[in-house]
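Module 6 notes. Inverse folding takes a fixed backbone as the condition and produces residue identities as the prediction. Think of it as a translation problem where the source language is geometry and the target language is the twenty amino acids. Below is one complete input and output pair. Work through it position by position during the lab.
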């Protein structure tokens, strides 16, 4: 069995550092990846995010199989940091009343249910904005909340396939390949966070909130980027090019004598440095087959073969040292394990460990955003299922212990049995 990776404890945050989103209340009805990734960023920078889950099973990612510590999955822990967690069975009228009361106090609601679920429960934007006109309401879906495809459910790999995004990944002689990490989900979560922040900025000027929407399919299509733009301009369907964008002969993976390197020599200036200062082959600069970028692309098979032979003659460290000195972008092709042990990760404090109530401590990957005056908050572990239900009811809505017990008896927090209690349904 693999050994747990040793990580440093999280460094403390300056005591007087304000949080960028302090005072913002977010009610989070999201699950799986895109929605939780969005709300985690809000929580990282000071928003109070109350994550509402269904009783017993909770967010689907709680059962994901990548790894587990203290009864919690890697997927759930990585996407729900700094949130408070409560359970509500929205099929129960009293639970819907609680949800409406929380939304009435909220600045932001984020949901990624299937179409019409929030409407069925009376929690849709037209209904709840009538009593909270300043509310920012963000909907995340596969194909949008309007139009003929709004009814369709979908996931990251489906939208990668249908948008053409997947057709660009892989090698020309192989099949289309989805990305390993769910890149469309993560990009959708980032864009949803951007949409919320844009709406908050607009609220300062306009005095009211709005409904914002991000769809996985739209994001997958946008991620095609200039490949999509080129198709719209020339009508030529782009093909897979493996590790070299546009099949460039000087960008991609080359094998040194002891392992792979990724070289990004993408313009004439860098090519000049590569062949003269790194490879010691100025003849490749004057050769008319390789003198211009267009000529290099036309004769790419020959040039890539020449470069491959040269790189194979020496070790990675030699080439990396030479290219760093010459200012030619280069990197090692690492495994995940090698990446997390890399000096770039440790020097920039990208990982740490944080306390967890059942695991003792869990790994944490720091937010990728660095802010000088308003840094990320000191991280807390993702909540256990229903961990803060009673606390939210007391602190945010003023419920008494007797009222909370009555709600429990009515099933607002799920079946009133030993299993629900063991999962922390009303703490």
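Target side of the pair, the amino acids:
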């Amino acid at each position: 069995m693999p050994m747990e990776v040793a990580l440093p404890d999280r460094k403390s945050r300056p005591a007087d550092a304000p949080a960028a989103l302090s005072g913002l209340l977010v009610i989070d009805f999201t699950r799986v990846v895109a929605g939780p990734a969005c709300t985690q960023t809000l929580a990282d920078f000071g928003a109070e995010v109350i994550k509402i889950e269904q009783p017993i099973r909770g967010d689907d990612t709680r059962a994901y199989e990548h790894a587990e510590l203290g009864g919690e999955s890697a997927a759930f822990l990585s996407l729900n940091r700094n949130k408070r967690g409560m359970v509500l069975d929205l099929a129960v009228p009293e639970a819907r009343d609680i949800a409406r009361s929380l939304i009435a106090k909220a600045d932001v609601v984020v949901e990624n249910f299937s179409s019409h679920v929030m409407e069925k429960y009376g929690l849709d934007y037209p209904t709840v904005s009538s009593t909270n006109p300043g509310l920012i309401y963000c909907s995340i879906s596969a194909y949008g909340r309007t139009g003929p495809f709004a009814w369709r459910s979908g996931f990251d790999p489906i939208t990668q396939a249908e948008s053409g995004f997947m057709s660009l990944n892989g090698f020309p002689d192989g099949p289309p390949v989805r990305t390993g990490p769910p890149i469309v989900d993560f990009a959708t979560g980032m864009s949803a966070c951007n949409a919320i922040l844009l709406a908050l900025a607009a609220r300062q000027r306009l005095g009211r909130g709005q409904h914002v929407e991000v769809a996985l399919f739209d994001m997958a299509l946008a991620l095609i980027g200039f490949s999509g733009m080129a198709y719209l301009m020339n009508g030529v369907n782009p093909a897979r090019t493996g590790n070299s964008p546009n099949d460039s002969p000087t960008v991609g993976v080359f094998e040194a004598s002891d392992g792979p390197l990724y070289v990004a020599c993408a313009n004439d200036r860098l090519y000049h440095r590569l062949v003269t200062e790194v490879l010691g082959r100025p003849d490749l600069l004057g050769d008319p087959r390789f003198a211009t970028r267009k000529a290099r692309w036309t004769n790419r098979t020959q040039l890539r073969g020449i470069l491959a032979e040269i790189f194979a003659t020496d070790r990675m460290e030699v080439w990396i040292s030479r290219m760093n000195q010459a200012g030619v972008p280069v990197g090692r092709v690492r495994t995940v394990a090698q990446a997390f042990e890399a000096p770039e990760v440790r020097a920039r404090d990208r990982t740490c460990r944080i306390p967890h109530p059942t695991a003792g401590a869990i790994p944490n990957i720091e937010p990728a955003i660095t802010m000088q005056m308003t840094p990320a908050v000191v991280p807390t572990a993702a909540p256990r299922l229903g961990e803060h239900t009673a606390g939210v009811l007391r602190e945010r809505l003023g419920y008494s212990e007797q009222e909370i017990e009555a709600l429990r008896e009515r099933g607002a927090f799920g079946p009133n049995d030993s299993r629900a209690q063991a999962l922390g349904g009303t703490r």
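Reference fact for the lab report: The CA atoms of residues 265 and 271 lie 6 Å apart.
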